[in-house]
Design a protein that fits this description.
144 residues; mainly beta; eight-stranded antiparallel beta barrel; 1 helix; 11 strands
C-alpha cells in the first residue's frame, strides 16, 4: 500500500512539475509592461560570435546575465530575457524555416530601466541562432 501511495505522489509531482510555469521577469518600457523569460525550448545560452570571429561577442548565461560586447570591443555586463507572456511562454513569430523572438537587455550597471530590444531568431535549416542578425551560434536540436 505504501508503494502505491508513493508511486501516486511521484506521478502527481511529475505532472505538476511538467506543467509548471517558466520564471518571468517583469519590466516596464515607456510605461508598457513586458515579461521576460530565459527559457524558450532551445538551448539559447552560450557565446554568439560576430562573423565567426573571436570578438566582439554576446554571452548569454542561464541566470539571465551576460556580456554584450560592442564593435569597439567595449564589454558591458547585461541582464537579458526573451519577451514572453505573463506565464513565461515566449512570444515569437513563425517564419518559413525560422522563428523570430525579441531579446531585451540592459546594462547591468544602469540603475535606470534603459532596456533595449533587438531581434533574436532561430533558423532551423542552418541550425543557427542569431542576435540582431549579426551575432550567431550553432545549436543542436534536443531529442525529447
Amino acid at each position: 500500500m505504501k508503494l502505491q501511495y508513493a508511486t501516486l505522489l511521484l506521478f502527481i509531482f511529475t505532472v505538476c512539475n511538467s506543467y509548471s510555469q517558466n520564471d518571468t521577469t517583469r519590466i516596464k518600457v515607456h510605461n508598457k509592461e513586458h515579461f521576460l523569460t530565459t527559457v524558450i525550448g532551445y538551448t539559447i545560452t552560450g557565446t554568439y560570435l560576430y562573423d565567426g570571429e573571436a570578438e566582439p561577442i554576446v554571452q548569454l548565461n542561464a541566470n539571465g546575465t551576460g556580456i554584450f560586447q560592442q564593435k569597439d570591443l567595449t564589454r558591458n555586463n547585461i541582464i537579458w530575457g526573451i519577451e514572453s507572456n505573463a506565464n513565461g511562454n515566449p512570444k515569437y513569430e513563425e517564419g518559413f524555416n525560422s522563428a523570430a523572438y525579441t531579446l531585451w537587455y540592459k546594462n547591468n550597471a544602469d540603475n535606470d530601466e534603459k532596456w533595449v530590444a533587438t531581434q533574436f531568431s532561430i533558423h532551423y535549416d542552418k541550425k543557427k541562432i542569431f542576435i540582431a542578425g549579426e551575432r550567431s551560434k550553432e545549436y543542436q536540436e534536443e531529442i525529447k
